[in-house]
Design brief:
The structure holds 2 protein chains of 2 kinds.
Chain A: H1 8-39, H2 43-47, H3 61-68, H4 70-102, H5 109-121, H6 126-135, H7 143-146, H8 153-166, H9 169-177, H10 182-193, H11 195-211, H12 214-219, H13 228-245, H14 251-295
Helix pairs in contact in A: 1-14, 3-14, 4-8, 4-11, 4-13, 8-14, 11-14, 13-14
Chain B: H1 11-31, H2 33-56, E1 62-63, H3 69-72, E2 74-75, H4 79-86, H5 89-105, H6 109-118, H7 124-135, H8 142-153, H9 159-166, H10 178-193, H11 198-206, H12 210-218, H13 223-248, H14 255-261, H15 267-270, H16 273-283, H17 287-314
Helix pairs in contact in B: 4-17, 5-10, 6-11, 11-13, 13-17, 16-17
Classes of the chains: A mainly alpha, B mainly alpha.
């Protein structure tokens, strides 16, 4: 907010502010940019510290290896399936549940709300959850990744707030007068009005499913079922941690490590690509989601 | 309710009103039966995947035997808790968890300061660019983030160490030194979420009345003074709520990321309660013991949440309930 004449102090403040945020921009962008240029620079020039702002000795060796790496593509395929199925479940349950909770005339509304919000602050913990999933026979199936986290309390509250603030009571009353059943009202009136919130929910859930690795780590043994993130963990972290362990190297190994390093840079790019490409177009939906959520704290 | 009208109620009248009310409630429930049906899946989900595991927490007080199941296993009382309290890992794990939690909590003001400053940017185009760019890292997965850290910090060819060498220093073996672990963890988190964390405060700032700023300008207040005396007090309720929510997740300390960053060299400062639960419980199959450790964690967390909510209330700030 800039109102009225600006004093000298304010001008200095403005300049410092722009400098500060330019620095923040640099700090945010540079690591991502560096990953991109490194993914097609020759490992030797990276290792010699010659790659800073431009790629050097351009090579596509890393990407070629990645395309031949079957595990990565299986992971990619699995992740897409889990994301689509998981997001569908999330959205259907969150929208219906959120709508019902938004109805103030519903007897028991407050009790339901307490019942749900309480789970945000207290839960059984990892072990009872694991045993439950195991008893339900979901271990080593896709369902272990999409059912136990079918509804996020936070999203449910966002949806509820959205309905409370966009569907006026008069509309519902008019519907009741016209003899419209709740079910019909929901399908014909509420759903068409909820397109923006559905978009927000799809994005939140999809990014969540795409990026998560821990439930897969706990519940999946069969490597063919691994989502991309778990494959990435093997490629990026386990090998790197190994390298940290035995940092004394002999010559032949170094060559191999050069290529593996190139793969790592490339794999980061390929894994983050879907999200980072879509992100600028979808940004406003994400932000809207957070804002709706913040209305009611 | 209005049509009851009367002021002094006879006993029998009161009874009929009660009956009427009850039948009105029943009518309402019946009329909305389809809403309850619509809600049923949600209800079942929370019962099965949240409340049943809470009930299953009794495993912490039992000697779990897979054949007999949680309910059928024999009681152990507080045996597992005692074993944890007496184990040599107890203090180390507790200290790491608290250390990391407090360190992270210390970063809490950063998005607030950023939002206050961003709100003062003159060019709205620059403002938008900053927002778009700084929100982006939020969407990178933890696996990729930690992978990037390993690459950047590699003692052999990581860019950070190359920079250090360029400046004439000695390469640092970041991931192998326990003392570095907490800083790496916390500051990479700051990098990832500093933009995203601003959104909620920026939203709160749009609600600040321009009149207040105008009045302050008339009084000759500088920008810094206006931030301090106008903006900050206006978003205090949001800050208070966010702080309590942060406390609510305090003991969770993003253990999924901790687990990825762990290795045998930095384990002495990277083992937190949750990773310990995972290792002893799921990898080591000591279900009851690990559940006890996990429960200990949840209870501490819950106590924190309640305490801070009460403190906020007492201080006259917004609270969760």
């Amino acid at each position: 907010m800039n109102i009225g004449s600006r004093s000298r102090g304010d001008k200095i403040f403005d300049i410092m502010n722009v400098v500060f945020f330019s620095l923040i921009l640099f700090i945010t962008i540079y690591p991502l940019y560096f990953m991109i240029i490194s993914s097609f620079s020759s490992p030797d020039s990276i290792n010699n510290g010659e790659v800073w702002f431009w790629p050097k000795d351009i090579t596509f060796e890393g990407y070629k290896m990645i395309f031949e790496h079957e595990k990565i593509w299986t992971g990619y395929k699995n992740s897409i399936i889990y994301t689509v199925v998981g997001t569908s479940i999330n959205v259907v349950l969150t929208i219906t549940g959120g709508y019902v909770l938004s109805r103030k005339d519903l007897v028991g509304n407050k009790i339901f709300m307490f019942f749900i919000v309480f789970t945000m602050f207290f839960n059984g913990g990892m072990i009872p959850n694991y045993l439950l999933v195991k008893d339900l026979g979901m271990l080593d199936t896709m369902w272990a990744l999409v059912i136990p986290n079918a509804i996020s309390v936070f999203n449910l509250i966002i949806v509820r707030t959205f309905f409370q603030s966009t569907i006026p009571n008069e509309l519902l009353e008019a519907g009741i007068v016209d003899g419209c059943s709740n079910w019909k009202f929901f399908l014909k009136i509420v759903l068409p009005l909820s397109r923006p919130i559905i978009a927000v929910m799809v994005l939140f859930s999809a990014v969540g499913h795409w990026n998560t690795y821990f439930s897969a780590l706990i519940y999946l043994r069969d490597a063919d079922l691994y989502p991309l993130q778990l494959v990435l963990r093997e490629v990026l972290i386990l090998t790197q941690a190994q390298e940290v362990m035995d940092s004394s190297l002999n010559g032949g190994l170094a060559e191999l490590q050069n290529i593996s390093q190139l793969i790592k840079y490339g794999v980061v790019i390929i894994a983050s690509l879907p999200v980072l490409i879509l992100y600028p177009f979808l940004q406003k939906h994400f932000v809207k989601g957070v804002m709706i959520g913040s209305i009611k704290g | 309710m209005g049509h009851q009208g009367g002021t002094v109620l006879q006993k029998d009248q009161a009874v009929t009103i009660k009956v009427k009310r009850r039948s009105a409630i029943i009518k309402k429930v019946v009329r909305n039966y389809d809403l309850y049906l619509l809600f049923l899946p949600t209800l079942v989900y929370f019962l099965v995947f949240h409340y049943y595991p809470m009930y299953g927490v009794q495993i912490a007080f039992k000697n779990f035997n897979p054949i007999q199941g949680i309910m059928g296993s024999s009681w152990a009382g507080f045996e597992h808790f005692e074993r944890f309290f007496n184990s040599y890992q107890f203090w180390a794990v507790l200290k790491n968890t608290f250390g990391l939690a407090v360190f992270e909590l210390a970063m809490f003001p950063i998005p607030i300061i950023m939002a206050l400053l961003l709100n003062q940017l003159v060019s709205s185009r620059f403002k938008r660019i900053v927002q778009t760019v700084t929100y982006a890292p939020h969407f990178i997965s933890v696996v990729v983030l930690v992978g990037m850290l390993y690459l950047f910090l590699s003692p052999r060819n990581g860019i950070i160490n190359q920079f250090i060498i360029l400046l004439g220093g000695e390469p640092i073996f970041f991931f192998g030194i326990p003392e570095w672990f907490k800083s790496l963890f916390v500051f990479s988190g700051v990098w990832q979420n500093l933009g995203w964390g601003m959104i909620i405060y920026l939203a709160a700032l749009t609600a600040v009345s321009p009149d207040l700023h105008e009045a302050a300008v008339v009084d000759g207040a500088s920008k810094l003074k206006r931030i301090w005396h106008v903006d900050l007090p206006s978003i205090l309720p949001t800050i208070s709520i966010m702080f309590i929510l942060n406390i609510g997740n305090l003991m969770g300390v993003g253990f999924e990321k901790v687990y990825l960053m762990q290795n045998s060299l930095n384990i002495s400062s990277s083992e937190v309660i949750q990773t310990y639960v995972y290792k002893t419980g799921l990898l080591g199959a000591q279900y009851s013991y690990a559940a006890a450790v996990g429960l200990f964690n949840s209870v501490i967390n819950f106590v924190f949440l309640i305490t801070f909510n009460k403190l906020a209330k007492k201080a006259g700030q917004s609270s969760l309930w």
